[in-house]
Amino acid sequence: MALFLPARAIARTIDEVVADVDNNPITLRDVRALGAAVGSKLPAQGTTSAPNFKDVLKQTIEQKLLEQEVKKYQSKIDSSQVDEYIHQIEQSRGINDQQLRQMLAQDGVSYETFRKQIRLNLEKTLMISLEVRQKMHVPESEVKAFYEAHQADFVVKKERYRLAQILIAVPQDATPEQVAAARAKAEMVRKQAAAGRDFAALAREYSDDASKSQGGELGYFAPGEIMDPILNAVKPLKPGQISPVIHTQFGFHILKLEEHQVPGPLPFAQVKGAIRNRLLDQKTQQHVRQWVDTQLVKQHYVETLY
Description:
It contains eleven helices and nine strands. With 306 residues, it is an alpha+beta fold. α2 packs across α3 (53-69) and α4 (79-93) packs across α6.
């Protein structure tokens, strides 16, 4: 009597096919991997008899159906959209493209693999948006009710400014002619910004500050963290407005006020868009499985062996 299963038998058990989607087999390995990912771990032995097996199998089939369906959207996402999404990631992390590549390399991920994953995520987001999210509706009354029930979530505790900057640097030993030339350049750039040209594009083209790679974005600052000349120029501004040219020891600054957070409750009009998006996200998540179960399953070949 054998006390242990032979290696081949173990391999067959691990890789046993338990379902099929469009002639793509789903194995026990696939089901166990998804179970581990969603916090519904399956036992190594007797996997198919586990109480949660059928539920995890169903989720695995749903995942495979989504993977098959998303192929229809491959031509709807182009390289420029991938580039823009990666740029947004870099902005949010405060890093440039070279730093991102270095971080990926440290994690053992190639840049091309990273781009492919971003493209796949964008394709999946577009698919769910068109097939599910755009069909959801959140009435104003529901948005208002959420705001009133969660007012503590919509209170600003400290005053903060979110700023973007274009800096025309001036050397410490600059001649009067160099200072005048830098001021003229700053006034020229400021004039373009005030006329409506994209501030981020101007920052990337003209700024001498390290923030140029992030389109001039500096982030949030409390009043006490801002130099007096800049704070005095920013205070009168409304979000979206451009400051006059400001001269400091670093050169000539042009600031854009992105946001001004004032202590106190945020008015409903200011946050209702964000609340509606949050509620839409919740409704979308709830309806994706319903869409898969009632529509996708009819459009694809699905066979289960358990």
